[in-house]
Design goal:
The chain is built from 28 helices and 38 strands. Helix content is 30%, strand content 23%. The strands form 5 sheets. A 9-stranded mixed β-sheet has the order 7-8-6-9-10-11-12-13-14. An 8-stranded parallel β-sheet has the order 28-27-26-25-24-23-22-29. A 6-stranded antiparallel β-barrel has the order 30-33-36-35-34-37.
Amino acid sequence: MDSIYFTIAEIALLIKADFFSVGKDQEQIFQLLTDSRRLEDAPNTLFVALVTKKNDGHKYVVSLYQQGVRHFLVSQMLPEFEHLKDADFLKVSDTLVALQTIAAKHREKFHIPVLGITGSNGKTIIKEWIASLLEEDKKVVKSPKSYNSQVGVPLSVWEIKSENDFAIFEAGISEPEEMEKLVRIIQPTIGIFTNIGSAHDEYFLNLNQKVAEKLKLFSNVQLLIYCADHFEIKDKIYVVDHLRQMKSFTWSLSTKIPADLNVIENSIEIDGFHLKAMYHGKELLMEIPFSDQASLENTMHCWAFMLSQGYDNEVIRSRMKKLQPVEMRMEMKEGVNHCFIINDSYSSDLKSFAMAVDFLCNQKQNKKKCLILSDILQSGRSEEELYAEIAEILRKKKIDFLIGIGPALLRQEYKFVEIEKHFYLDTETFLKQVEAEDFSHETVLLKGARLFEFEKIGALLQKKVHETVMEINMNALIHNFDYFRSLIKPSTRIMIMGKAFSYGNGSHEIAASLEFHRSDYITVAYPDEGVTLRKNGITIPIMVMNPEEQGMDKVLRFNLEPEIYSFYMLNVLRKSLNTLKIKEDQQVYIHIKLDTGMHRLGFESADLPLLISELQKDTRCHVRSVFTHLATADDASMDKYTLAQLQKFTDMSKELTEAFSYPILRHALNTAGICRFPDYQFDMVRLGIGLYGVGFDKEVQTKLETVSTLKTVIAQIRHIAAGEAVGYNRQYIADSDKTIGVIGIGYADGLNRHLGNGRGCVLVRGCKVPIIGNICMDMCMVDLTGVPAQEKDEVIIFGQEMPISEIANTLNTISYEVLTGISPRVKRVYYQE
């Protein structure tokens, strides 16, 4: 047994739990699990049932038990746990506090340098770059991705192993009194305070309080590194006794501010920033392979850190030149030959590898799952142990095909059994021997360390696309899903509205993610939309709102559930049941639509006696739900009408449900209704436009995150003289000399022609610039006068800094129309940070 791990009995003792043991108390715990979907090693896992506003981990105990987990940390003992006879339960009042205590005790076992990083921006990038700079000398453990929260930090610290000799952890807080908990877990010996900004300002009294809270991370560090140019940080340090007396390393981009490292010359060359700085009276030179201000600040922290650790500047200089941009997101794009390509070059450590494989397994578009993997660097573990664990993960996750690239993988090829595989020494060898045509109808994950240049493989396999794309932020999608889930009771189910290509955001990609995050139902408008989901592996129940006479057979063959809104559609259903020879002992789920005031589709009160009679006659029709549609839930001035609809639905649904012996779900609330009428949740709610980050009022909008960003690039920049015209019909005449940008999006892409001639704007380099002239089919023109833009610069049509609601307001329409109007030829790119 490895002494760095606690036994279940030791954990029970250190968290002072009520221990319900069945004799497995000496088993060691290797994995702390808080997300039931990320199970890896069931026999040695402790599942921590966290209770949050969004979810309750106790709901997943029985399911995990069925998958082999036998150790559970809970805050309540539910009746269903009594049947789990050979499971251990540790009961505490607060499972999050217990999780943090376990991690803190684990941290105490190690006496290695630990770098703690906090600040408003740059934490993850600085962490990754410092790990890269140290990899030749140290066996580094670090936070996976951006795990810096109250849950993420303990899970990160738990990853420290006996072979590690350096650790780097991020710490992020959103409100006061959170940092005290994180500092107890991380116990840093070195600190970096990156900067201070406006994120989460609403939870702090002022900027001074926010700085003070973040500084608590450094209560006992031996060295604190920060930028002396940030006066908010510097001034607060000087008024806190123990921080003022602490050893610090400061840097500045100004010669006028005293610092340990002062930049005295700063120029941007073709290859990035060239710097000259003074350090201990000596001039130092540095080249930074980036040209943006954020990267300059982040790399300065790295330079200061390396100098503080005694590294020779020429060593630092040679390593800094090799730094690569940190792509903090996993992208999914269409590939060649009906493939989907997931590109995750963010990090090559084992934890991020496991997370990326989980993401691959969650994709349902193609049955075949392929992994292209490079050597995993800086793991701090022996090759044999590392690749044995990777092979076991691939076996458990049932990955079909492995392509290994790198000398270490080549040496460890024999570890990978029960999987189709090919191995190559390097990326160039792979590219010489493999063609794009070798891949077909599969989902491919690219997981490679920067050294292996997997972007070349991505270029080979990704479908060549129009430079106009709509990016879908899956993290934001799930944030919005969780926000609305936090507004409803735990017992209330959620039906996702997936009609109209998921409001223009995509079909099976959205459905697969929401199925993974435990949506209960998904709804489409027409049968073909449901068939597409089924063909792409979606298994959750799917309601079809308009099954159509010609599509009913398809609905039944693909296990879809039709909405029945009239006696005519009920007869169409019966006819199809007979055609397909559905027997009386077979049941088909249907959903009954009631008209309570929308007057679009649905049965009225007078129809109910006959409807009930007809449904009772045909036992093949099993009523799964009864529902209505609210006409004015988002309009406070119409609340009286909405409440009347809800009361009418209550009465009508009661009459119908009481006529049957089996339970029937009831649902009435849409996105606005979820927020405004919480007393009428019934059994299920329907979440639509809010899922995609569009709120019906300002208060709700502040709680949501932007999901979709429509972007293109500047194809050409040209200069015109006063009096010259731009575009069809000479609708724009320049009143002075102008700089004009031609951008690659037009009305065939979904850019409404009414946005032309100065009515609409786009965002270029942070500046709003007007669309001028008539919008063309495939492109349009914008006025770039005074904007330092270049050809191939990114142009945002709508997104976080350019809300879609602004376009809707300009067009005197609603955000639904703008979103659903984006053409299918605009490629959707899905990413997860």
